[in-house]
Automatic annotation (TrEMBL):
SUPFAM superfamilies: C-terminal effector domain of the bipartite response regulators, CheY-like. Residues 124-218 bind DNA. This is Response regulator transcription factor. It comes from Halomonas urmiana. Pfam families: Response_reg (PF00072), Trans_reg_C (PF00486). Residues 2-116 form the Response regulatory domain.
Length: 223
């Protein structure tokens, strides 16, 4: 999961980045609305965490403009404002969820995972593709009921394929959503990591669609 955090409190941003990073979230940061505006228009994110009190304008104003321009990335508002009128303004601008400061990092993580899951059309926290199960809350994977050990990068890659299933996902889409923008891999790196996942999950579970990309399947399907 690749997330943009828009927060001008650097200490808070660093603490949240560390905590979410430990949970496998790939977090990029912006300290002002203008910087965030550039990033959401040029980069691909699975969600945005947006503070309302930004130095160059209220966060809800930036959010309203994104929605006006058909940028539909899920947005979790994170702010110290607790009045209902402030929350209403955020939702009216296009926010998908709202967390007030101070907060528990675990709550932010759960809400982020739920937003991303729902944006892909999944209601249940456990994504099942055949005998493969990906628990979006715990970040754990089982195959036929047995736990599968994955590296952080393998887990992010599988998570994106699981959320997108049964859709075919291109290499460029994987690069945009699974890797840091400053360290986007070439197609060979993605191929190598797909190969490692196949060794752990079974070759038939990740199908290659030549010229299109990859698709997570139940294991007994044909491409």
């Amino acid at each position: 999961m690749k997330v943009l955090l828009v927060e001008d409190d650097r200490a808070l941003a660093e603490a949240l980045a560390e905590a979410l990073g430990d949970a496998g979230v790939l977090l990029e940061t912006a300290t002002a609305g203008g910087e965030a505006d550039f990033l959401v228009r040029t980069e691909a994110y699975d969600a945005v965490i947006l503070d309302l009190g930004l130095p160059d304008g209220d966060g809800s104003r930036w959010l309203a403009q994104w929605r006006e321009d058909a940028i539909d990335t899920p947005v979790l508002v994170l702010t110290a404002r607790t009045r209902w009128t402030d929350k209403a303004a955020g939702f009216s601008a296009g926010a998908d969820d709202y967390v007030t400061k101070p907060f528990e990092t675990a709550e932010v993580l759960f809400r982020l995972r739920a937003l991303v899951r729902r944006s892909h059309g999944h209601a249940h926290p456990v994504l099942r593709i055949g005998e493969l199960a990906f628990d979006t809350h715990a970040g754990s994977v089982t195959l036929a009921g047995r736990p599968v050990s994955l590296t952080a990068q393998e887990s992010r890659l599988l998570a994106y394929l699981a959320h997108a299933a049964p859709r075919v996902v291109s290499r460029s889409e994987l690069a945009e959503h699974v890797y840091d923008r400053d360290h986007e891999p070439d197609s060979n790196v993605i191929d190598v990591q797909i190969s490692r996942l196949r060794r752990k999950l079974g070759a038939a579970r990740i199908q290659t669609h030549r010229g299109q990309g990859y698709r997570l399947a139940g294991g007994d399907e044909t491409p």
